[in-house]
Design goal:
Elements lengths: L1 H5 L4 H12 L12 H21 L1 H17 L10
Helix pairs in contact: 3-4
Length: 83
């Protein structure tokens, strides 16, 4: 409701726009308010992975394997590989 008010739309109008974006047949990425958090998290994790890899390649490999297992269990990997 807050986002609808911020966009100066009725709740139904706001939801309608979200649904239209979600079913975009051109498969464009739908902007999320969480993008900034995701981008920052990716940057931090990339820095940490680089540092760990420089200190211990085995620790990095174990961490990546564990990450892949967790993401797969939660359905977040989508059948893709992390490497």
């Amino acid at each position: 409701m807050r986002r609808a008010l911020g966009a100066i739309l009725s709740l139904s109008g706001f939801i309608r726009q979200l649904l239209e974006q979600a079913v975009d047949e051109r498969k464009r990425y739908v902007f999320s308010s969480q993008d900034e958090i995701l981008a920052t998290s990716i940057q931090i994790l990339s820095i940490v992975a680089t540092s760990v890899g420089q200190q211990s390649l085995k620790a990095l490999e174990q961490g990546m394997a564990r990450t892949q297992m967790i993401l797969t269990e939660r359905g977040l990997l989508g059948g893709e590989d992390l490497s």
